[in-house]
Amino acid sequence: MGRSSGLLWSNELGSAGRTRFGLLRADCLDLWPLAGYKFRVTAKIVKQHYVSRALIARFSQDPRMKNGSVGQVDVSSGRVFPARPPGSVGFEHHFVKFDGDRMESLWATVENPMTDVFVALLRGQPESLRAMRPQVNDFVALHFARSLEAQRIHADTLAEVEARTRANIDLQTRLAELKYGLDLAKAPSILQEMADAVLDPIQALEERGEPFQQWIEDVFQKTRTYLTNFSLSIRPAPIGTEYLLGDCPAIGIAPGMDPRRRPPLLDAKALILPLTPRYAAMAYPSERGDPRFSVDVADAGFVASLNRAQIALAHKRVFYRPGSGHEVTVRRYLGLDGSWRSADVNRTTPR
After folding, report:
1. Which of 111, 97, 107 is nearest to 56 (CA)?
2. Exposed (0-12), middle (13-18) or buried (19+): which is 124, by Cβ within 10 Å?
3. pLDDT digits (tens, 9 = 90+) for 104-163
4. Residue 47 phi/psi, 5° resolution?
5. What does the pLDDT read at residue 59?
6. Would strands 251-253 and 91-93 be described as parallel, antiparallel, or unpaired?
7. Model confidence over 213-222: pLDDT tens digits?
8. Is the dihedral of CA 215, 107, 93, 11 positive or negative?
9. pTM exceeds 0.70, yes or no
């Protein structure tokens, strides 16, 4: 889990972060009132993208989003899937199921301004994006917060909270004494009942998706604010190379980082997001004065390293422009032969 607190803010933001929400403190005695909490669940939009459809479309055969399809490889099996339209990949049903429609509207405020960015990149005019630095940084923040990695951290945190609560015999005994008195306080069934009493309200909230929704929105807003004064470098890939796109595409860079676990935000020295097969965006702290904007041609080693990171941090799929040959790139990274055939659907390799 990374940090000793085991709570999401510590994992996602870094050592300067705070507890993401108080109700997941395993030593809290104020949880029972949540049992009567009334919930509002709205999610008319069922199919929700965790990678923006507009971003995936840039890796299709037609980056203008008309008739293109995007290639994809499963990172667990190495299976190469047929190319699909951008709207058919990179989503889950009810990814944010609580207040989902409002969240989709919030994401749209970040995604819609990127139209001008993608048009400029399609025309080969990255220098014209100086005024769009805030919008590009917001787009990076969105993909850092709304991600399958965030979903994993959330699930791991809930599992840790349950384990810590069930192991906290002192807490269970104190609650049992309050409810039943000293005579029954040590009975195993009573202790289990007390643990359930602490966890049931949390699990009820989780069933409705509210904790994840609240946290992912909070992480997004704080990441967005954190990146406000970050400089932006657009990194064109050299001729003969292309970027690919993982399903957790906002990559953090930090010294000594685990290549399969992105570093917490406050520990990262930069955040990098591929925007098209030809261009990537790198947001990084401004050393002095106002944020800078630059266009800095990447070398082949940078492109290869970013592509490896995209594959390593992917949870399900890696996307690429059909015809780029990146299905071979992904399979070789996974330890499979670069060639592939339909029988490979049954092959697996450890992640």
Report:
1. 111
2. exposed
3. 999 999 999 999 999 999 999 999 999 999 999 999 999 999 999 989 989 999 999 999
4. -90, 105
5. 96
6. unpaired
7. 999 999 999 9
8. negative
9. yes
281 φ/ψ angles, rounded to the nearest 5 degrees? -110, 135
Three-class DSSP category at 294: strand
Q: Indicate the pairing of strand 80-84 with strand 70-74.
A: antiparallel
* CA separation for the pair 120, 125 (Å, rounded): 5
30 token code pair: 């104020």
Residue 258: half-sphere exposure toward Cβ, Cα within 13 Å: 8
Tokens standing for residue 51? 């990678």
DSSP code per residue over 18-63: --S-GGG-TT-S--GGGGG----------EEESS-HHHHHTTBS-T
Indicate left, alpha or beta for 71 from its phi (over 0: left) and psi (-120 to 50: alpha): beta
8 Å CB contact between 77 and 188: no
Residue type, 38: K
**DSSP reduced 3-state for 303:** helix
**Residue 314 and residue 261: Cα distance in Å, rounded?**
10
